[in-house]
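Narrative of accomplishments. A recurring question from our advisory board has been how the design workflow behaves on a single, concrete structure rather than in aggregate. To address it, we present the structure tokens for one chain from the evaluation set, followed by the sequence designed for it. No filtering or post-editing was applied between the two.
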């Protein structure tokens, strides 16, 4: 993942499914992206702390039987707004890239699984 904002959008997207602790967030990202985003836990925890400090997520310590408590993160109203902003920015960005690619090449690019099919 090239930019911190990309990981922020992905984390907020995962948390829209419900509260999760850090390791669950990392695992869910790997399940969804099949490793393509390369979201490392070393970048995840500082981001979670920042998002919590900014008020986008709320961390709550949840006790566990016979084990240390885990901090479970959930979206706040501000986090839902941030997620909507990321979605709109992504759609705009992806649309612009698609427009440029189709305009410059004059061909239609379609994805089929992991293959790219070029139709012209």
């Amino acid at each position: 993942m090239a930019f911190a904002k990309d990981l922020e959008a992905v984390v907020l997207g995962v948390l829209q499914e419900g509260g999760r602790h850090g390791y669950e967030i990392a695992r869910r990202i790997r399940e969804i992206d099949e490793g393509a985003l390369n979201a490392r836990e070393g970048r995840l925890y500082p981001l979670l702390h920042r998002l919590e400090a900014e008020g986008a997520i709320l961390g709550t310590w949840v006790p566990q039987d016979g084990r240390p408590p885990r901090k479970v993160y959930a979206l706040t109203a501000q986090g839902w707004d941030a997620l909507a902003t990321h979605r709109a920015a992504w759609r705009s960005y992806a649309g612009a890239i698609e427009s440029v690619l189709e305009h410059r090449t004059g061909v239609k690019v379609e994805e089929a699984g992991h293959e790219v099919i070029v139709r012209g």
